[in-house]
Amino acid sequence: MRRIFLILVVVLLAVEHVWLLAPTAKRWIFPPHSHPAAEGRLIADRLGCLACHGADANGGFENLNEGGSEEVPALAGGEMMMWATSEEDLREWILRGHALDEKPDYDPSGYSAGYDSGRAVVMPAFETHVTDRELDLLIEWLRAISGLQFPDDAVVAAGLDLAHEVGCFSCHGPMGTGGVSNPASLKGYVPGFFGEDYAELVTSDVELREWIENGISDRFTKNPVARAIIGRQALKMPAYAQHMTEEQIDSLVALVGWLASSEWESVPIP
Ligand code: HEC
Ligand code: HEC
To answer: Which of these, 146, 193, 235, 181, lies nearest to 42 by C-alpha position?
Structure first.
């Protein structure tokens, strides 16, 4: 009797262990891949950037000032170009709270930060709060959300406008840098258009078009395991065939191909 009880306990413990180890095993078999821009966004969240600049860095709240008020500026959608002239300038903004060529006559840090600036809220100096590595990742995030990439190819450019309009980047991350959470998906997030995840999901332009038109590729429809996983996940890839013209689909195929080539990452910002 005691023996049976002991065996039962051992079995229970073993089952519990396997259960606890399952997430680790899954991560080991299907390792998650994150883009530096997605890591940068997590850092922006942790450092409080999004509190002032808005959840999507599309602009924050009304900032009271002497003349009335103006919004805390957006970091996304091309607005950075109005405030900074180079990547060095962006680093200066983050580290010291102002552009390279304008020393403010107020203190951007301390308990009275911004007092005498004429504005209720000023850009803080993050010098003592951010490491070199974190600053690099923040820049990668700013690059992805900047809206300052202008593809030479007209078809790709049309695809980029369309992708912004219909929300491709809301699910796939800015410029397809991935990382948006997706419950019950294999890796826990919506994959981006880069690296190993993309290479596994899209092996040709034909498959790319299938994904965009039908929300899944023919290869995955034929694979029962892939079909089951994709069917279970909360966020699903929309099937755009019914909602778009052939020309629009063409532009998206061209765009995703261009994004996957990572060419945009070497375009200087702002
Ligand atoms: C307390 C609110 C606040 C926080 C937190 C904050 N900012 Fe700012 N930021 C501002 C304001 C306000 C400005 C406009 C300049 C000013 O009034 O000082 C600004 C300006 C900027 C600019 C230049 C303007 C532009 O649109 O390009 C950049 C870049 C910037 N912030 C990035 C960041 C980053 C990155 C973080 C996080 C590390 C951050 N900010 C955190 C309030 C904030
Ligand atoms: C509601 C969220 C959502 C939207 C909007 C969305 N997708 Fe997807 N997309 C997904 C999901 C989820 C997958 C499935 C990936 C998987 O197997 O986990 C996917 C898969 C893909 C794939 C396969 C390869 C890969 O790395 O993701 C491509 C290509 C793709 N989508 C392109 C687009 C384009 C282009 C648009 C805009 C026209 C778009 N998606 C809009 C959620 C979305």
So the answer is: 181
Taking the centre of ligand 1 as the mean of its atom positions, its distance from the CA of residue 124, in whole angstroms, is: 7
Interval 23-36: pLDDT, tens? 788 788 888 889 99
Question: CB under 6 Å to ligand 2: residues?
Answer: 163, 166-168, 170-172, 182, 185, 190-191, 193, 197-198, 201-202, 208, 211-212, 230, 235-238, 240, 252, 256
User: Which domains, and CATH codes, for the chain?
Assistant: 36-145 (1.10.760), 154-266 (1.10.760.10)
Ligand 2 atom with the shortest distance to the CA of 244:
38
Q: Strands 62-65 and 68-71: what pairing?
A: antiparallel
Q: Which atom of ligand 1 is nearest to the CA of 119?
A: 17
What does pTM read for this prediction? 0.92
Ligand showing the shortest atom-to-Cα distance for residue 269: 1
* φ, ψ at 68 (rounded to 5°): 140, -105
Q: Which residues fall within 8 angstroms of residue 50, CB to CB, at 6 or more apart?
A: 44, 57
- 41 near 55, Cβ under 8 Å? no
SS3 label, residue 52: helix
Question: d(Cα 62, Cα 172) in Å, to the nearest integer?
Answer: 30
